[in-house]
Amino acid sequence: MKQLQAVVENRTGFCLDPRTKLLLMAVVATAEFLYSHTAFMIAVAMIPFVLLLTNRQYKTATVFFCLFVAGLFVQAIQNSVQFPMIVNMLVVLLVGLVLRLFPAFVMGAYIIKSTTASECITALGRMHIGRQITIPLSVLFRFIPTMQEESAAIKDAMRMREIQFGTKKFWQNPAALIEYRFIPLMISVVKIGDDLSAAALIRGLDNPVRRTNITKVGFTGWDLLAVLIAGTALLSTYFFSPW
């Protein structure tokens, strides 16, 4: 009779503990509204940017880099160029959105992409966080990738039927693009949420007994290095930067 043995996935290379990621997320989200100097904002934005590169999310990192540089450029010329009032309001809103909020959004994208649901549950359990938070988070970590796959499948189906921007069917009925894209997506989202919630309950996440987990989660030298580099960059630009 063969003996069943659990297979534990050991990650190699640069890998941060989920608790370190949450700490950096809190630091980035707080620091965005703490100081307005350019050097400090760049230091804050470099944290998620470098983490994206280490996780090989090159496309997201490139888009974030281009938007952030464009936001800095517009902010630099904003006082020297006279925009109409409405345009100026939109420019201020968009620049503030990119410089203040995008780093936190990008940091969240990195955390979701680089952290599995098991790692998240294990880390939160070691932080003694209640199941009222761990269960929704476990569903969230599985929900977003599944929703992205469903959206890509709907997009492929629309492309096969030539229902996309610029085609003949689009110009005949532009509203069909929204109808055929969002209605199936909303139905799928509801179904996916119900399925993942049921799966979480079947796995015993609501069981009051302390759960065991084969996922290895722990602090390493990479966590200390990441915190030290991020802290040094933020403190140096906060106290000593002239611009």
UniProtKB/TrEMBL annotation:
TM region positions: 33-53, 60-77, 89-112, 219-240
Location within or outside the cell: Membrane
Keywords: Cell membrane, Membrane, Transmembrane, Transmembrane helix
Organism: Enterocloster clostridioformis
Phylogenetic lineage: Bacteria, Bacillati, Bacillota, Clostridia, Lachnospirales
The UniProt record lists the keyword Transmembrane: yes
Key word Translocase present: no
Membrane topology: Multi-pass membrane protein
Protein's recorded name: Transporter
GO cellular component: plasma membrane
InterPro entries: ABC/ECF_trnsptr_transmembrane, ECF_transporter_component
